[in-house]
Amino acid sequence: MDDQLEDATCVLDAFHIVKLGTAAVDDVRRRIQQQTLGHRGRKGDALFGIRHVLRAGRERLTPRQQNRLASAFAAHPDHVAVEVAYQCAQDLSLEISRGCGLDRRNEWRKVLLAWDDTGC
Q1: What is the chain's Cα-based Rg?
Q2: CA distance 79 to 72
């Protein structure tokens, strides 16, 4: 494709950047679920119970949902990875919502490339 579209510029819009962040949280949640319990999520599993809550913006969470998140994160020491992924995705979403001027786009390009190198 590169040889056919030499002058093309690769771009990501805000929706797809946030979508990638949310997908990363879900991937981390599933991986930790499998590592800690040895099976896919089931009814009653802490991480399985918050899978939909993790997709919501932190500013939109009800007190009950905030308590559910806190309980799930505290249920097992390994759940901290899910908490960190969630906080990163929320921070990413917040930064994207603030706007993307030219200077900010260059900053985000560096951040996204660094994030991609981590294998998240």
Answers
A1: 17
A2: 7
Inter-residue contact 52 to 86 (CB < 8 Å): no
Instruction: Identify how many contiguous H helices and E strands the chain contains and give both numbers.
Output: 5, 0
pLDDT tens, residue by residue, 22-67: 999 999 999 999 999 889 888 989 999 999 999 999 999 999 999 9
- Each residue of 13-29: pLDDT tens digit? 788 888 999 999 999 99
Q: How far apart are CA 44 and CA 46, in angstroms?
A: 6
Nearest to 100 by CA among 22, 13, 10: 13
CA distances to 56, 104, 117 from 114, in Å = 25, 15, 5
In degrees, to the nearest 5, what angle opens at C-alpha 31 toward C-alphas 44 and 113? 135
